[in-house]
Amino acid sequence: MTPNAGFIYRMIKAPFLVLRRAFWWLRNNEVSYPHEFLLLFAAMPVALTLRLLSPFLTIRVARITASRLGNLSFEPEGYVMSRDLGLMDPNTFDIFYYTKAHSNKFLAAKWRSVIRVWGFARYVYIVNPLFPGSERFRADTYNLREMLKCHSEQFSKPGYLRMSPREERRAEALLKKYGILPNREFVCFFNRDSVYLDTHVQNSDWSYHSYRDSEIENYRAAIDALSDKGYGAFRMGACVSKEFKSDNPHVIDYPSRFRAEINDDILDVYLLSKAKFIIAATCGLADLCQSLRKDNVFVNAVPFILLDGFAGKIDMFIPKLFWLKNEQRYMTFREILGSPAKDFGRTEDFAKAGIEPRENTSDEIHDVALEMDQRISGTWQETPEDRELQETFMRLLPPNRLPGMRMPRIGAAFLRKHRNLLS
C-alpha cells in the first residue's frame, strides 16, 4: 500500500473508530448526549492541527478526574508545581478538561485561575489516539505524584490554593445564616467510608477500596478531649454513612446536618482552610487538606508508605495494623515494608494474602490528636525514648527512597504501645 493510499485508508477508517471510542466513553459517562457524537467528529481536525503545529509548539490535552476530590485537589496542583519546578518541557502549551461530575464545584472553579480549562478539550482528548504520535499530545497529571515525592519541601511552602477575602466573607455569611459560624478555634475531622463513591460515581464497583474504611465513633474520645481544651470541631465530608451525634453545640456534623441544605461547596474549602489542624483519613479530602497546606494527622493510614514524600511541617500519622489470620499476630513494620503488602491497593489483595487491616482504636486516635495539638502549640515534650523509637521506625523505610523524600512522624504513644512491631 502506497503512503498516499495508507493515508486515505486511515481517513476512511477514522469515523468508524470515532464511533467505537465514543461508545466506550459513553460507558464511562464522558459522552452522554447525542450532540456530543458530532462534537467528536468536529474534534478530529483539531487533533490534526495539533500535529501540524508541533514543529513550532507542542499543544497537549489532559483530563482531570473532577468526580474524585483527591484527583481534583492533587492533579491541578501537581501539574502547576511540576511546571514551576522546571520538571516539564517549557515548550508545551497544555489544555485541560474536567470530567463531567464535579466533586466540588468551587474547587474546580478555583483551579481555573492557574490552569487552562476548555470543555471542548474533552473531545480532542478522546479522538487524539486515533492519529499517530498521540502520547506526545497528551499531558499526564495522575503520575505526577511519583515525580514530586523527592520535592516534599514544597509541601511546607504556601500552596497555590488560596481563598480571596471576598470568598471568605461569602463563606462566613453562609455559616452565620445557619448559626454555625465558629466563635473559637476548631479542628476538622473525617473518616473514610464508601457512601460518596457508591452514590456519586456509579459507573464502577468501588468495594475494592473498603480496606480503607473506618468507624467514625473511634474519633469521639479525641473530639471530646479537644472540646475540653476549648476547641470546636467540624466533621467533614460530602455524604456519610453514619451521623456523628454530640450534645456539644460546638461539635458539628456538617455533612449530616447542614451540607445538603446549604448546598455550597465553598464551605468544604473554607472550613478546612481555617481549622487549627485536621484529623484525616487517607481519602480524597486529605489531598485537599494538603493542597491547603494544613497540619494533618492521618489516622488509619493505609497503605502508609504512600504518605512518604508528601509530609508538611508537622504532619503526623498512625497506620492501620496488618493482622495475619493464619498466625494470629500482627505483621511487624519490617515485614510490611519488605513485602508486597506495603503497596496493596485493593481489598481482595489483603484477602488473598490472609491479612486483615485493623483500624486504630479510640485511644490511639485520642493520643495522636492530643500530641498533634501539643506539637502545634509548642508544648510537646519529647522524651529520649520517643526520639529513639521514632528514629528506629524511620530506619525501617526502604533504602532506595529518593533524595528529598520526607515521611510524616508516627505518633509517639502509638510507637510506645506497638514497640514490639519495630523488631
Structural commentary:
The protein has helices at 3-27, 34-53, 69-84, 105-111, 121-127, 144-148, 165-177, 195-200, 220-228, 254-262, 266-274, 284-291, 333-337, 347-352, 362-377, 384-395, 412-417, and strands at 58-64, 92-98, 186-189, 232-235, 251-253, 278-280, 296-301, 316-319, 321-324, 329-330, 355-358, 409-410. It is of the alpha/beta class.
* Order of helix and strand elements from N to C terminus: HHEHEHHHHEHHEEHHEHEEEEHHEHHEH
What's the total number of strands? 12
* Rg measurement, Å: 24 Å
Number of helices: 17
Shape: globular
Strand content: 5-15%
Secondary structure class reads alpha/beta
Strand order of the largest sheet: 5-4-3-6-7-8-12
User: Average pLDDT across residues?
Assistant: 88
What fraction, in percent, of the residue positions are helical? 40-55%
Give the termini distance in whole angstroms: 67 Å
Low-confidence stretches: none
Sheet with most strands? 7 strands, parallel
List keywords for this structure.
423 residues; alpha/beta; seven-stranded parallel β-sheet; three-stranded antiparallel β-sheet; 12 strands; 42% helix
